[in-house]
Amino acid sequence: MGKIIDMINAAVLAGTPLLFGTLGEILTEKSGNLNLGVEGMMFMGGVSGFAAAYLYNISAAQQTSGLIAVIFAILGAFAAGALGALIYSFLTVTLRANQNVTGLTLTIFGTGFGNFFGEHMAISSPGGFAAVDNTVKAAFGAVDIPVLSKIPYIGKLLFSYNFMVYLSVFTALLLAWFFYRTRYGLNLRAVGENPATADAAGINVTRYKYIATTIGGGICGLGGMYVVMVTCSGVWVHNSISGLGWIAVALVIFAAWDPYRALIGSLLFGGLSIMRLYVQLGIPMQIYDMLPFVGTVIVLILTSVRQSRQRSQPKSCGTNYFREER
Amino acid sequence: MKSKPVDAIRIKNACKSFGSVLANDCVCLSVRNGEILALLGENGSGKTTLVNMLSGIYFPDSGSIEVNGKEVTIRSPKDAFDLGIGMIHQHFKLVDVLTAAENIVLGLPGSLRIDRSALNAEIRAISKRYGLEVEPEKMIYDMSVSEKQTVEILKVLYRGASILILDEPTAVLTPQETDKLFNILRNMKKDGKAIIIITHKLNEVLSISDRVSILRKGRLIDTVETSTTNAQELTEMMVGRFVSLAIDRAPCADTEQRLRLRSVTCRNADGVKALNNVSFTLMAGEILGVAGIAGSGQKELCEVISGLHPIEEGKISLVLRDREEKISGLSPSEIANRGVSLAFVPEDRLGMGLVASMDMVDNMMLKSYKDPPGFFVDRKPPKEMAERLIRRLEIVTPGTSTPVRRLSGGNVQKVLLGREIASNPSVLIAAYPVRGLDINSSYTVYDLLNEQKQKGVAVLYIGEDLDVLLELCDRILVLCGGRVSGIVDARSTSKEEIGMMMVHIDEEKEVGA
User: Fold this and answer.
1) Which chain B residue lies closest to A203 (C-alpha atoms)?
2) Against a cut of 0.80, is the pTM above it?
3) Which domain holds residue A96?
4) ipTM of the assembly?
């Protein structure tokens, strides 16, 4: 029993960055923008969030407050991810550049951006590696919730995580509420499905695309920050995102563009990526490392045969809208 | 609603041109509150252009528009909304994966959270008032065409429109659905709304409208009270008297049967029967004209014969040297190999048949790249063929290596038709081959078709201009809503007769079954 709970704990922790990436991309695709730059935006968010907390940590030294470091990390990560998405929006919405090419370029750019500044911080620090101190690390550790965390089993299962986990779940619920219950969510879905109809109904298609894509990028950035601050315990590790952004893109399809399903998907894929620690099958480690990607391929194959119109990609996704082309 | 008799809409001397084409030439139009005005005219007569100026899609070059007695400027669909003008387009503007209610409320201002039960109640209230039937929570993709139209009407009513414009609303409806729609329109009329309905179906005009405005070639011919007119008079005004073109009609060369269609039925993408029980025999050495209002099944007819569109029922067979062979169910290339050639000129002219960015030689090769078989293609024969066509048909082009998209419309059509003819077909289907051509080019095309006919080719000519059909063809098949309303001898019939058959099926005369 204890081992299963340990495994679920680890799966949730490993799945959280995927969840952020998936949610950000769902929001983006709902506006009809297929932004393949999730990986890049996660790198940008990762390095910027880390840098914000790290530089604050250095300057405040002994007076460092965990809460302020957390706020810096969140703001830095969100802003950097949003900046990447803003570049993407400008290129595809305003200049009508090809969405696939722009997204791929953003991935390459973001990866370079992250590794360059990350390495720069590492080599300019005295020890040769950049790391936050224990105060900051603790702020990203498990939150002790009075009473709830003490309940046997349930406490460990549900109330033993760091605040980023709760934030990601909250984001999923918020997005679901936004899409399915609010007027703006409805308008956004119409923009992604049929921008010409939305335009005719008086919806500002360009504004919706910009805002949704930019906020989506910010959410992806938080996923990158999680990897650096939680998974890597506040130390900059070269190539730390390493493909998580791509899994998130596939998870969007797995989740059928639904935030609730994204919760399940990220837990499942988080589980796949930590399996080697919990299920020993006597196979080479590299095979374990392959599992999430093999899973991604299987998901893509299975979902490509699905016909339901309710659970398919927003129809205008991947094509730019140009009013005069009606 | 105003008690004094102010026109809901009054258009004064509206002109609109596209390039050198005058789509509307000083048209005046008015509609009162509580009245249904029918706008009647053939395709291309400028009906849609006129109402698009009311709905904010086009802006008039000159002239003025008054709404409820006040002069207004309509620059966008939103301006039209604000003035209470609602347009129901021929092609629905709905988001498939949303419900009816969601589509209706789309883009409207209001509270952050949508109160669905209140919204549904409101929609039901409007529906009840006008006799509309709609399920607010039903997804659009689960709806029939008629249900989708109902949602469009509701969308307009929900936004508080008092002036409704319907662009050919019955084109996609069954007769029963049309009756239902007309009842709804009558309810709206009783409620004091002004309604403009565009149509070219005479029986509908007579049954629903209070007054009729007839447009022809961009001009307003007349506005008459429906009660004082009849179908004959309206047809005459709509079709008008054209300057006759004298086309040499060669006598029929041959009289053997070539292509037989037996009870052919097919459905279009919307699931509507595009062809319904169509039967006819195409003779070798004749030109069989196909007349009908646009969208009566002409496109589907071409496509089922050439194998591009599957048929649901019936049989198509080709007769060659007294041997009858079934060709329905074969692939397009197998049908083409048996000598059935399709020269289809769709509205965008380059869509089907030619690749715009390729030059003439490559376009010739699209048809012949398979012979001789092998990995490499021989560009010499197609190049010679292209040069032959340029000389024969007097195609104006800088050379065989110029992309066809750079050629003028008439020359593009000559390339297409020339290539089809060069393959020595036994059946030639020419759909709108003179669309957009000037008189001279049109005559070249007529001559080409006549020449084919004399060679014993069975020609199916799908045309728009009744005068041309009458003079060029030997027999004319009239399509009406996907059914054959009659096949007449072009030498003895009249334009009026065909015009009537185009809009009305006389059950006794119906050919088929």
Assistant:
1) B107
2) no
3) 2-325
4) 0.85
